[in-house]
Design brief:
Layout: H1 6-23, H2 30-37, H3 41-47, H4 51-75, H5 80-100, H6 102-115, H7 119-141, H8 150-161, H9 178-193
Helix pairs in contact: 1-2, 1-4, 2-3, 4-5, 4-7, 5-7, 5-9, 7-8
């Protein structure tokens, strides 16, 4: 059996991600993806047996990107406040993208949750664990002198910023901004530093 070209697979996933974002799940077609990738539809089906599997692969890829972002942030040499902002701004931008295409993305989000019911829990756990690691390193280094109980501080902080990460605009009188998020992060950093 011939092995499949991984560069072509990545290209297909990149194109599919773009189509899913712009057209939603129902509005995305395997033939449209194949045409943009310069492939016959039959060739596309060698890589992905159906649209659901293609969506699943793009979601898995998205989760891997999130994990890579976490690893990069945690291993960076910056101060705790910079790490926290870099990480949370990245997550905020991802959620904002979904929020800005709300009608197509709510349908897409429903399909993703159907295929990946554990996805929201996993994303939430990744965020909580990452913020915990950042605060723990800040407390251990002496940068965050007022952090005594990391778990409690993370719980309060995560509840305080949850508003920024809601997937739809129906909950907002005005959409949150990156500047608003930075204000909240700065307020907490100031409290934690003493």
């Amino acid at each position: 059996m011939r092995s499949l070209d991984q560069r072509k697979r990545k290209l297909i996933m990149k194109i599919a991600r773009s189509h899913f974002k712009s057209s939603g799940y129902r509005g995305t077609s395997m033939s449209g993806i194949a045409a943009e990738a310069g492939l016959a539809v039959g060739t596309l089906y060698l890589y992905f047996p159906n649209k659901g599997e293609l969506l699943k692969s793009t979601v898995e890829d998205f989760i891997e990107e999130h994990k890579t972002q976490i690893k990069n942030v945690l291993s960076s040499k910056g101060q705790v406040n910079k790490k926290l902002k870099t990480y949370l701004f990245g997550r905020f931008e991802s959620v904002s993208e979904v929020r800005n295409n709300e009608s197509r993305n709510s349908e897409l989000d429903r399909k993703i949750l159907e295929l990946f019911p554990e996805r929201r829990q996993e994303e939430g756990s990744l965020m909580v664990n990452t913020v915990t690691e950042i605060l723990k390193s800040g407390a251990e280094s002496g940068y965050l002198t007022k952090v005594k109980n990391v778990s409690k501080e993370v719980l309060v902080f995560m509840h305080s910023i949850a508003w920024f990460f809601l997937p739809t605009e129906e909950f907002y009188d005005r959409p949150p901004s990156r500047r608003d998020l930075e204000t909240v992060i700065d307020w907490f950093i100031e409290k934690w530093r003493g």
